[in-house]
Amino acid sequence: RYKKAEPLFEQSLIIEEKILEPEHPSVATTLNNLGIVYRKQGKYEEAEQLYKRALAIDKKALGSEHPSVAIALNNLADLYEKQKRYEEAESLWKQAMAIMKKAPESDPPTLATVSGNLADLYRKQKKYKEAESLWKQALEINKKVFGPQHPKVSVIFSKLAYLCRKQNRYEEAESLWKQSLEIVKKEHGPQHHFAASIFNNLAGMYKKQGRYEEAESLWKQALTIREKKYGPQHPSVVKIRKRLDELPGDEENELSD
């Protein structure tokens, strides 16, 4: 779909540049949208040029502290993160967050998204405490805006659970994944693909704790969901089967030759 969208945005850009001034905020919006289309297709150099141009327009037309500037910074940071230019991405996300926290007209869910983007960058760098702090900020925003049972809240519970597990805080991780699962079940039912992801993560933690029966039960549930959704040969299905095969068996009940 991005390939189909590309000529449409390119045409819109040509028209807007003719009708409006080349440095009009609407031109910046189209540049950002076209940049996203390029990024999704792996055209990183072209996307970077467009994002930088959009950022310059927004700064000049709206001022360097406007929320639109923060969104442009976020888009450029996301591109840098995809290219593993982590220091540049971190700097831009911090700038974007600072603008959003100060600007009274900022959109709180957008701030939560930017906080989550930076949190995921820290997670990749194994900076778990920094990531946890940012996800907690995003959690409070989304609870306030969408309510405590919203799917966005469920996703953050799962993100926080992963970070707790990585820091060997297993009880906290278990509680957070179970809270996440309850929301998923309520909103989408127990056979949803995100429920399978939670089952898979919990099972991996249970295995690490030596809770093999509980791990087996959850992996079987995840396997059922993913087989139904993706088919028996999908890599994620094969991976769960392998994990089940690797669980220790009940040696006392095994027959010897």
Keywords:
257 residues, mainly alpha
Whole-number radius of gyration?
A: 22 Å
Indicate the structural class.
mainly alpha
Give the total of beta strands. 0
CA distance, first residue to last residue? 59 Å
List low-confidence stretches: 251-257
Rounded mean pLDDT is 93
Query: How much strand content do the residues show?
Result: under 5%
What general outline do the C-alpha atoms trace? Answer: elongated
- Considering DSSP H and I runs of 4 or more, what fraction of the residues is helical? over 70%
The largest pleated sheet is described as: none
H-E string: HHHHHHHHHHHH
Number of helices: 12
Give a quick rundown of the structure.
By secondary structure, this protein is mostly helical.
What does this structure look like?
By secondary structure, the chain is mainly alpha-helical. Helices cover 79% and strands 0% of the residues. The chain contains 12 helices and no strands. Helix 3 packs antiparallel against helix 4. The longest helix has 19 residues.
